[in-house]
Automatic annotation (TrEMBL):
GO molecular function: cysteine-type peptidase activity
Protein name: NlpC/P60 family protein
Swiss-Prot/TrEMBL GO biological process terms: proteolysis
Database matches in SUPFAM superfamilies: Cysteine proteinases (SSF54001)
Alphabetical UniProt keywords: Hydrolase, Protease, Thiol protease
Organism of origin: Fervidobacterium gondwanense DSM 13020
Record has 4Fe-4S as a keyword: no
Top-rank taxon: Bacteria
UniProt keyword annotation of Protease present: yes
Domain NlpC/P60, first and last residues per copy: 125-240
Lineage, top ranks: Bacteria, Thermotogati, Thermotogota, Thermotogae, Thermotogales
Length: 245
């Protein structure tokens, strides 16, 4: 049967603009995420991220290819999303799985798509469901263009992954997020502040947390007390609020 789907079997894999390893990284997928395969080209597949419908080229050696029936079968298992920064595995795989990874639970163990099982060395989830509290786990994580994992984030990949882990889907890129979210007159904790080409998560008391190219990491910026922060505040053109929080 034709392999129409794939599931990521590396801790993280790049989604690229062209089927070349030197082409631009436009997105990333993490362990356990599904794609629909649209075509194959040498070592790459052109695929659509099932969650976001985001398309690009993925090295097919980072995927386990699935028939429609295999995809449906794996999807039936209980899915656990990692909300800790990282989670170590043991057994047939020894990985440091990043934030947002999908684990498919089978009783006391977890399944790989080929049916083999593995176990965890760390708790995969944290107790809090507060997006700002979760975001603080990633202070100092490197800025990475196209990044969506705790190995490295870009600005929109950071907020997208935070809300993904909480079960709230928002678009991938900052301009799409800005268009998608409803406007608010003033920000509250968990809202998103948009300026041209950048998005920040509002905390409270005029502070934001964001993956940014100024500090080249996830950092907190005070929009009143720092020169950089005052510049950012002057450029904000929309406060986006997430109603389903």
């Amino acid at each position: 049967m034709e392999k129409l789907y794939g599931v990521v079997i590396n801790p993280v894999t790049d989604v690229r603009s062209e089927p070349k390893f030197k082409s631009e990284r436009v997105h990333q997928l993490v362990f356990g995420e599904f794609v629909e395969i649209l075509k194959e080209e040498n070592d790459y597949v052109y695929a659509s991220d099932i969650r976001l419908n985001y398309r690009g080229f993925i090295n097919k050696h980072t995927l386990y290819l699935l028939t429609l029936e295999e995809y449906r079968e794996l999807s039936r298992f209980e899915q656990v999303k990692i909300s800790a920064p990282f989670c170590r595995t043991s057994g047939v795989i020894s990985y440091m799985l990043p934030f947002g990874s999908r684990l498919y639970r089978d009783g006391d163990t977890f399944l790989l798509p080929d049916g083999r099982s593995y176990s965890l060395l760390d708790a995969p989830t944290v107790e809090t469901k507060d997006v700002v509290e979760i975001s603080l786990q990633f202070l100092g994580i490197p800025y990475l263009w196209g990044g969506t994992s705790s190995y490295g984030f870009d600005c929109s990949g950071f907020v997208n992954r935070l809300y993904d882990v909480l079960g709230i889907d928002i678009p991938r890129d900052a301009n799409q997020q800005e268009e998608y979210l409803e406007s608010a007159e003033s920000p509250k904790s968990g809202d998103l502040l948009f300026m041209k080409g950048h998005v920040m998560l509002y905390m409270s008391e005029n502070k934001v947390i964001h993956a940014n190219g100024h500090h080249m990491c996830v950092s907190i910026t005070d929009l009143e007390k720092e020169e950089y922060g005052r510049y950012l505040k002057s450029q904000v053109r929309k406060v986006g609020t997430i109603k389903s929080m």
